[in-house]
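Hi! If you just cloned this repository, the fastest way to understand the data is to look at a raw example. We've pasted two of them here, unedited. The first protein comes first, obviously.
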Amino acid sequence: MAGPASRRRWRRLAALALLLALAPGPPAAWAGQAPRPAERGPPVRLFTEEELARYGGEEEDQPIYMAVKGVVFDVTSGKEFYGRGAPYNALTGKDSTRGVAKMSLDPADLTHDTTGLTAEELKSLDNVFTKVYKAKYPIVGYTARRILNEDGSPNLDFKPEDQPHFDTKDEF
């Protein structure tokens, strides 16, 4: 009959065997291959309102950017929707969070401000942010408003986890 130490050893071996069996495959080093470096996209940057406005789809040779929830997306691949004269061009060159939440192109709604949005509008915002913008368009930066004060100084009280309707862990 096996003692307690033998049973613990057996459980550890069984757990290790299960872990190895469920692993998606051996690491590259086990297979005799050099590990590949992680693929990286273009570097991200902070955009002031003035800088973001330069990417509103008016210039034929410029990329088209828009921001939702302070995240700047390159929507150039959707030029037929966001380019000059296109149906959603009003959303470009700015943070249009409120307009996306309300499904509105009213100039008064083309702002970052989410004050007074209903629970349904906030749910819609999160859904469109995740299933449309994050799923289809590369992130090229963030609006300066997310982490800076009005005077441009760092907002020392900024904590992403405290921002309403905002979850940075899902952005990377």
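Ok, and the second one:
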Amino acid sequence: MASSNAAAGVDNTFRKKFDAEEFKERAREREKKESDRSKSRSKGPPVQRAPLKHRDYHVDLESRLGKTQVVTPVAPLSQQAGYFCRVCECVVKDSANYLDHINGKKHQRALGMSMRVERSSLEQVQERFEVLKKRKTPGTFSEQDLDERIRKQQEEEEELKRRRREKKKEKKKGKVIEEEPEMDPEVAEMMGFGGFGSSKKS
């Protein structure tokens, strides 16, 4: 009996009581706000973004390669270590991630482009081929030029082999004997060449 009186005397008033009506009211208010928000979004027409285009600038990844830079914690973003994107105002730490960033969805959306590529028509493809044909310089080689270059190279190699064979034959016959001109023994000794002479006696 004494134990039941002790349990009844415990103060549990600090616990929060669950009020079902209050939470139902909060849920209704939240649903109302979400429906108002969705209506305001759907009022305007969907944003039409331009299709992807070629870059009209060179991506400079190598200019700061191997250079040191003093980094301070109070420096603006554009002067911090890494690659700074002016469009998105963010710093990327290395060149691979910077390239991923500028090719990514977030950057392209900031530029006003979607990630879709414009579909080319047959006329556009034909025009592009014509432009590339005109750009082709007359100095480029065809298959005939390639065959001719190969033939010339083979002739040069054969000529080189023939010369080598002739030199070997001449050496065997003893016609080509190159001897160093002999120095005066006194001059050679003065210059310190006395011990470097050949062991042959003439």
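That's it. A detail worth noticing about the second one: The first strand starts at residue 50 and ends at 52.
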